[in-house]
Amino acid sequence: MNTNRKLLYKIVQLLCVVILGIVLFNIFQLVEIIQGTGRVINYTGIIRGGTQRLVKLETNGIPKDDLMLYLDGILDELQTGQGQYDLDKLDDIPYLEKLSELNDYWDAMQAEILIYRGDPGNQGKVIQMSESYFNMANDVVGTAEFYLEQKTKILTTLELVMVILLGLLIVIALQQAMTEIQLLRKNKELATAAYYDKPTGLPGRLSCEEKIWPPMDRKEGPFGMVMFDLNNLKCINDSYGHSAGDVLIKAFADILNHLTNENVFVGRYGGDEFIMIVKNHREEQIEQLLTEIELATIRYNQKSDQLKIQYAVGYEYGGDSLPQMLEKADEKMYANKTAIKADTNEF
């Protein structure tokens, strides 16, 4: 289920990224179009105002050929998209049609202005044409503004799509992050459980292994290895339930745990097996520790009205390696268990 969910997340993420890339590409293009359209509108307004200024000067006897050439250049660049003013040719048929009509009318008006220079009798016609030209230029500006408005709406829609896609990617990323956090937490719990025995509060099997297998530091020696095994635990579990057996395991673990310090390590090695690794101790001191454990066990059994702690023990002192010492301590512990069974009746 988790694998399928991860695969689904990856597919959705990939689709979102692809679509987002397409959207961003179109947004960049639209921004350029909108910027170019803004320049087109501005220069169309220049044509509109410039023509009015031209007619005013011409009718006052001031020829302005340079202004005519300037307006010619703008009109030509608006239609072709090529020239010195960095103007775009808008990809809009209504606009281009109106612009073409404006250009044709401009040619006719220029012809009338040239006639006026030689014969001022057509002044009224020139002024009338300039007014018509002004209105036509207004229509061109309006068409370009409508084109700009449409592109702006598309841009707004694409920006909304982009926000939605980014939001979806963020949600997926957060979900994945939460899943990873939960996974890390579970892995940490598993690792903790492997190194720490929760029922007894002692180090677990992996912690014991990490203590046993590294080479011994002779400066910390001599070393002793002690192996404990609770007796009759299976019978207790079968007769009274595992909870009863767990009580005895926890009680014995508490007895051992009270003896731990920087030189004494105690861990739960198996179900009912415990080890004690002792360093920087003489053999007499190890035997004293075992006596303390025995006395603490007797005190517990005296206070307990029901089940009693019974255990077998074996230890090895001053060996060459902890694994070797563990093996010998285990043999001695089983020998002790056999002797106890021989001397007492089974539970």
From TrEMBL:
<dbReference type="InterPro" id="IPR029787">
    <property type="entry name" value="Nucleotide_cyclase"/>
</dbReference>
<dbReference type="InterPro" id="IPR043128">
    <property type="entry name" value="Rev_trsase/Diguanyl_cyclase"/>
</dbReference>
<dbReference type="Pfam" id="PF00990">
    <property type="entry name" value="GGDEF"/>
</dbReference>
<protein>
    <submittedName>
        <fullName>Diguanylate cyclase</fullName>
    </submittedName>
</protein>
<keyword id="KW-1133">Transmembrane helix</keyword>
<feature type="domain" description="GGDEF">
    <location>
        <begin position="221"/>
        <end position="347"/>
    </location>
</feature>
<keyword id="KW-0472">Membrane</keyword>
<dbReference type="InterPro" id="IPR000160">
    <property type="entry name" value="GGDEF_dom"/>
</dbReference>
<keyword id="KW-0812">Transmembrane</keyword>
<feature type="transmembrane region" description="Helical">
    <location>
        <begin position="7"/>
        <end position="28"/>
    </location>
</feature>
<dbReference type="InterPro" id="IPR050469">
    <property type="entry name" value="Diguanylate_Cyclase"/>
</dbReference>
